[in-house]
Amino acid sequence: MSDKSIENREDIMEKLVSLAKRRGFIFQSSEIYGGLSAAYDYGPLGVELKNNIKKAWWKMFVTDRQDMVGLDAAIIMSPKVWEASGHIKNFTDPLVDCKKCKRRFRADHLLEAVPLSPQHDKEKPIDWKEVKCPECDGELTESRSFNMMFKTFMGPVEDDASEVYLRPETAGGIFVNFTNVVDSMRMRVPFGIGQIGKSFRNEITTENFIFRTREFEQLEVEYFVHPDDWKKHFEDWLETMKTWCKCLGIKDENLVLAEIDEKDRAFYSKRTVDFEYKYPFGQKELYGLAYRTDYDLTQHQKASGLKMEYTDPVTKEKYIPHVVEPSLGVDRSVLACMIEAYTEVAGGRSTTTESIKDSEVVMKFPYALAPIKVAILPLSKKETLTPLAHEVYDAVRSKFVTMYDQTASIGKRYRRQDEIGTPFCVTIDFDSLEDKKVTVRDRDTMEQERVAIEKLVEYLVSKFAAYEKC
Ligand code: ATP
Q1: What's the CATH number for 5-75+171-339?
Q2: Ligand 1 center to residue 216 CA distance, Å?
Q3: Distance 169 CA to ligand 1 centre (A)
Q4: Where are the domains of the chain?
Q5: Ligand 1 within 6 A of CB of 285
Q6: 235 in helix, strand or coil?
Q7: Considering only Cβ atoms within 10 Å of each terminal Cβ, which end of the chain, N or C, has fewer?
Q8: Whole-angstrom distance, CA of residue 46 vs CA of residue 27
Q9: Does ligand 1 lie within 6 Å of residue 203's CB atom?
């Protein structure tokens, strides 16, 4: 029996996508109509996993901290917000088309796939005639800017006056509420506002399952600091984000912190560190940490004519706070968490007397994040066991997300639960009727313990507490 790690296995994405669909984690959107590309629906287990991740983030980044508060701003905001923030002008990606096969590429991504010759002078503009389409070797167009914001219309008349945007990042809602939050909550700098919500980007190319989609969810903090203190806070958030990655189950060796060059940074950032993850399809961004200076508040002050200043209650110094922004994606968190959890055990695990020859999949989610926490498995469907099994199910369900499964052999049922990462399986057998005890099996150690039914919930609570990382 050996656990295979993900590094050597390029086929993991295919297996993961198939497991995600088969076991109710993630489905292609609008599948019955042929699907909408790069749009996904989270199924019954996916939504549990996603909610657990969001809850854990909210706890670690917001409610566990005295210097943080939360917000839930509207997705559709006044277009003036995006004009002031510079998104209408600058939130663009460079786009090139192939003249022959008509495929469309994001220019910077294309250059990663088809690097320029080492002799190319980096300071010179790229002559796109020298680069060929990686799909058909055709000639490419010149690069041009493409704004990634989705437009829609507010109200019944489709004219310019009613044109609005779906937010491309949740941050905008935080900046425009800065003074509301300071005034209503008496917050003192340094403090931050956290928000979880959907964002929309009309990405030129979408790729790799839920890695890059046009509708996605973000977990963002805008942390307001004195201009002299940003470096210290930047380092603090860097550490918090590293701890968060551990909570998701990400191994140190799969995470790379990359300092982003000025030319590659977002237009509002003076320093960015990307948290890159070694996905099976390559090392790419998982999260970003940016120093946004006083850019956003200053822009909103200019555009709205309202003061965005903060007055220090002790020194009476007046200033526009600077901002450190840890920006995380929910969907990339789910993806990284699933990739890390995916474990294949060649030859199976000796969970039962049945001989299992195929390899077995165990989703080793951190226990706190597992979508289903406990499975109740009566050994037999016989009526004599059912009432007691239901009694146990009702007791456990009041505290944990629990699944009841009485079909198929116990070995098969253990495998089903392992495949969705359920930390504890509780079996009720005929002895349970006499001794009022059940057998609890731990997903990772596979140890089995006989536990009194009246102590079961307490036992499970203590087990989860012992495993809890975040
Ligand atoms: P990329 O370089 O991959 O396009 P970005 O640098 O534009 O990402 P940010 O603007 O820093 O991304 O957004 C913050 C976070 O939001 C990202 O680190 C990522 O987790 C998530 N995110 C951004 N764009 C997408 C997307 N299209 N699909 C899924 N998640 C996304």
Answers
A1: 3.30.930.10
A2: 9
A3: 9
A4: 5-75+171-339, 94-145, 369-467
A5: yes
A6: helix
A7: N
A8: 9
A9: yes
Q: How far, in Å, are 15, 19, 180, 226, 454 from residue 365 at the CA level?
A: 16, 14, 39, 39, 28
Cβ of 328 below 6 Å from ligand 1: yes
Unique residue bearing structure tokens 């980096």: 122
Separation of alpha carbons 335 and 218, rounded Å: 14
Q: Given the CA of residue 330, which atom of ligand 1 is nearest to it?
A: 20
Q: Is the beta carbon of 219 within 6 A of some atom in ligand 1?
A: no
For domain 369-467, give the CATH number: 3.40.50.800
User: Which pLDDT score, from 0 to 100, does residue 354 have?
Assistant: 52
**CA-based Rg of the chain, rounded to a whole angstrom?**
26
- pTM, rounded to two decimals: 0.91
By most ligand atoms within 8 Å of CB, the mutation choice from 285, 325, 328, 337 for ligand 1 is 285
Does the CB atom of residue 197 touch ligand 1 within 6 A?
no
What number does the ligand 1 atom closest to the CA of 212 have?
Answer: 28
CA separation for the pair 103, 58 (Å, rounded): 40
**According to the model, what pLDDT value does residue 39 have?**
94
* Torsion sign, CA atoms 22, 26, 31, 32: positive
